[in-house]
């Protein structure tokens, strides 16, 4: 945990950050009106996300408590986050003393979570409870304790490392996508300032001391004034019309936009909210709230924003008595006619057209002649069967396979160790067994921990056969839909996924291991189809991907999913080489599943032969799209 205190290292001044104006505005508005709900910052590495957040604390601190920025590590234990009983005091003195956690320490300040999308599910649940109630309650082993935990939630994330749970995403009032600036002079200034700060942090901070003081005073004045800002009925109607136009779920979005617009008006010193404030609020508060599929693009384009503002203008109607100065003219670029609907894409050009390629393409061709693989034309709404790795693992929290966990159902007692929950019943039994003739007194050697079984995420490597035999006979659309549904399933289970494509003369790693499944879908959609079937090369590459990941994440268990009709046609000995590659994967202890994509009246059954060499379960596409299936009870 890191708090912003006088004794802490010098922080890079908030006002010294070059660019990122929208992000700085979002943080300032959240500081002015904490009821907005905080800020989610999405962007690539090296875009000053953490620097800006850490610089916010000194600007909002009227005292130590309100200016505090508390960092919540993604690897923190639940006891560290919500607080816990001091076990030493219980055993030594018989007193139930409570040690506050990070949530309570962030009260009236900022709770900052770097890489919030990687936060364990059990911590997300705790965070959601605290964010909703403004307090944290601990009820454990007959003891109940409640502490205030009203904080501004700020999270940063790199979308390429995985998405955020929808429930937690909805708790962030504002969301900002950040990227490195393209302007050459701006990039040069970033370098210059950073090097100056590294050379002399105190001297650099002193240069911005007056600017920081003025900014802090302005934030303080806006915080004092925001409760008195008026929101005319006309602007409330505008907000409601915009939210309805963008298909925003529920009413939280409407309320957050109104609060943000009021904060923006206070920030610019205006007593009343107008269209300018609403537009700024919509741009920050609604992009992550629009109803969309998990793989649709986030954000709100200028055209979409203009279109939404036009819809809001229609809802607001002509000027009314409570807002006589409102301009009834639609915003510039208003109803542009032709702005795409939110989440609209190119309708999967490759997936819907008839594939007419053949297997007589050149074996060495790097660009198969067929159409783009594309994405499923429309979401099917189907749920694929839950493929699980057998046994019990120790991987990161997720929702696919069984794993030992701090959260889950208790199976038995084990030796006590830091970080494990105490198994109270087993601890008492151990104490009773040590001194059966006297009253039971628990000592440190009696402590037992609870072994709990939860769920983990896995590395799922998809090997997708996109050769000519797979794309013929109207099969491409069905395979595309199935791939997207399986990737969607991996998204909900928090897996790391990779996609190996076999077509033409070789196999390629189309998507390196990533937690961002939307990136996987987009890259897969661009792959060309057709040509011969280098099945052996695809399996070999999949095995290599697994081995590389094992070196960096040894606890993440792999699952290889092969979508093919089983025809290996890349060379005369292709079938034999495919069987050898399959056997090699089996010897490495890599679990796998073969999805038989063969269709039609005449079937060769080649996928079944491949599955036998892999030691894999064989499923048809129809079977995979049925209800949940658990492989191999542990």
**Uncertain ranges:** 1-7, 320-369, 627-634
CATH topology of the largest domain: Rossmann fold
Computed structural class: alpha/beta
Tally of DSSP helical segments:
23
Q: Label the overall shape.
A: globular
**Spatial extent as radius of gyration:** 29 Å
Query: Biggest sheet, in brief?
Result: 6 strands, mixed
Spatially, the strands of the biggest sheet line up as 15-14-13-16-17-18
Summed up, the domain count is 4
The overall average pLDDT, rounded, is: 75
Span of the ends, CA to CA:
37 Å
Q: Percent of residues in helical segments?
A: 25-40%
Protein name: VWFA domain-containing protein
GO molecular function, one term: ATP hydrolysis activity
Region (Disordered): 290-411
Family: Belongs to the Mg-chelatase subunits D/I family.
Brief digest:
This is VWFA domain-containing protein. This protein is α/β, with parallel strands linked by helices.
What can you tell me about this protein's structure?
This is VWFA domain-containing protein. Residues 341-354, 368-381 have a biased composition (Low complexity). GO terms for molecular function: ATP binding; ATP hydrolysis activity. Residues 290-411 are annotated as: Disordered. This protein is an alpha/beta fold and 634 residues long. The protein folds into four domains: 14-180 and 189-210, P-loop containing nucleotide triphosphate hydrolases (Rossmann fold), CATH 3.40.50.300; 225-316, Magnesium chelatase subunit I, C-Terminal domain (Helicase, Ruva Protein, domain 3), CATH 1.10.8.80; 349-390 and 457-624, 3-Layer(aba) Sandwich (Rossmann fold); 402-456, no CATH class. 38% of the residues lie in helices and 17% in strands. The protein contains 23 helices and 18 strands. The chain has a six-stranded mixed sheet with strand order 15-14-13-16-17-18, with helices on both faces. Strand 16 (558-564), helix 21 and strand 17 form a beta-alpha-beta unit. Helix 8 (184-199) crosses helix 9 (201-207) and helix 11 packs across helix 12 (252-267). The chain is globular. It starts with 20 loop residues before the first helix and ends in a 10-residue tail after the last helix. The model is unreliable at 1-7, 320-369 and 627-634 (pLDDT under 50).
